Amino acid sequence: MLELKQVSKLFFPGTPDEKIALMNIDLVLQPGDFVTVIGSNGAGKSTLMNVISGVMTPDAGEVRIDGDIVHQLPEYRRSRWVGRVFQDPMAGTAPNMTIEENLAMAYSRGKFRGLGFGVTRARRALFQEQLTKLGLGLENRPRAKVGQLSGGERQALSLLMATFTKPQILLLDEHTAALDPARAESITRLTESIVREMKLTTLMVTHNMEQAIRLGNRLIMMDKGRIILDVNEQKKKDLTVEQLLREFEQISGHKMADDRVVFG
Amino acid sequence: MLNAIIGSVELGLLYAIMALGVYITYRILDFPDLTVDGSFVTGGAIAAVMITGGYSPWLAGVAAFAGGLAAGFCTGLLHTKGKINGLLSGILMMIALYSINLRIMGKPNLSLRGFDVPFFDISSDWVRIGLIAAGVILIKLMLDGFLRTDLGLALRATGDNARMIRSFGSHTDTTKIVGVGLSNGLVALSGALITQYQNFADISSGIGMIVIGLASVIIGEALLGARTVFWATLAAVVGAVVYRIVVALALRADWFEASDLKVITAAIVILALVIPSAQRSWRQKQLAKRRTAQLSERTPQQPEGGGKHA
Lengths: 264, 310
Description:
The complex is a heterodimer. By secondary structure, chain A is of the alpha/beta class.
C-alpha cells in the first residue's frame, strides 16, 4: 500500500544550519494499517508526512503508493491517493466559502475540475448524509460559511473532507493538538470510527502518548530523523506510557524532549 | 443635471464589466493586478482597429476579450512560473502593453467617426441603457455561475486557502493564471465597449483604471455588502455606476476641474480602505472593554492585603 525505501531529507544542506530531517527511513504500511507516530521535537514526524503527501520531495530514496512511484510528483498530483488533516483547524477548510462548497471541493479530490456545477442536487444529498454522521448539526446549515464554525467543528469538517472520498492513505498531523481536551477527545473518537469503518490506511502523528498506545494497530517512535522503535499490535496492547518513555530513553540515550508532550 | 446622471449610468454600466474583472483579482485571488491599466487599452485598441478595418463590432468585442485574456495569462505566468511579486508582474505587463497597444493602433489616437457601431447608435436613451444593463447583468450572472463550478470553486479557494485546495489536488498556479486571464478578458471587453461608446481609442485611456476598478468594488461592497458571490458581483456593478455618478456630481462643483478626477478617485479609495478598518478596530476595542467589565463583575474580588487568606 504505502512503501518508503531508504528515504532521506536534509534541511539547509551544506550550511552551518544543516539538519537531518529524515535518514534512511524504511517503512511499509499494509492496507488497513493504522499507525501512530510519536517522537520528540524535530524527530522528523512532520517531514515524514510532508514527504508522503508531496509538500517536500525526498533528497534520496523512494516513495510508493499502491505500487506507483510517487516521490517526484508535486502535492496536487498526489492528492489522488493521499488525504490529509493538518494541526491547524484553519488549514483544512476555506473560511469564506460555505460548508457544502468546501465539501464539493473535497469531493473532486484528484479529479479534473471542469465547468460542471460544484454543488449539484445529487452531491447535496450525499453531503447531507455525511454531515449527519458527524453529529454536530452541520447538516442543518450547509450554506453557513466555514469561518463561522468553531475550531472543533472545522476540524471535524476537515476530517470528513479528507476521508469521505476514501483516499488510499490518510495522514493525520497532530490534528487534535490545537483543540481543548474535550473537543480533542471527540475528534479522536470520530477519527477512530471513520478509520475503522472505511478501513483507511492511516498514519497519525500525535503528542499524546496514551492516545498513541490506545489507537491503531501499530506504533512507531522517531528520533533525529530515524525510526527507532516499531511496536506491533500484540506488544502494543500491553504497553504503558512509562514503558514507552523508558524504551525511548534507552534507545535514544536522552530524555523525551517535548514541551507539548501529553503523557495521558 | 438629469442628463449628466443618465450619461454616467450608461458609462458606469460599461465600466462595470471592468469592475467585475477587478473583483476577480482583487477580492477572489487577493492579487491587486495592475495589468488592468494596459489591458483596458488593449481591448479598446483591438476593437478600434477591427471596426475601422470593417469587421463587426461584435466580433471586435470577442477579439478584445481574447486579447485581454492573453495579457492576463502573461501576468499570471510571470507571477506563478516566474515567481515575480504580484504587483511587479502587473507593472511589467502594464508597461509592455503600452508599446504593444501603440503597435496595435499604429498611432496614439484612433477615431471611429464614420464607422458603424450599431448598438450605440440607438437614439433612445432608455432603450440603449436598458439593453446595456441587460447585457451587463447577463455577464454578471455568467460569472456567478462560473464561480460555482468545480473550477470556479478551486479558483475561489486559491485566494481563500491555497494550501487546502492544493491538498485536494488543484494546481494553484493554474487557477491563478485562469483567474488573472479571465479578469483581464473582462477588462479588455469593457475597454472595447467604452471605445465604441466614445467613438475613439486613446493610448492613455487606461491610466488609473485599476484604482477606478478598486473604487467601484469597494463602494459597492460598502453599499450592498458581499455576503455571497451573487451580492459581491452585484456590488461591483452597482459600485461602478455609483462611482460614475459621484464623479459627475463632483465635477459639477465649481472648485473642481476635470483634471482633478484622478485625485478624487484616489481619495475615494483611500477613505473607503481606511474608514472600515479604523471602525473595526475601534469596535473591537469597545467590545473587549465591555466584556472585561462584565466578566470582572461576575468573578469574586481578590482578597485585600496580598495573600492573607486565613
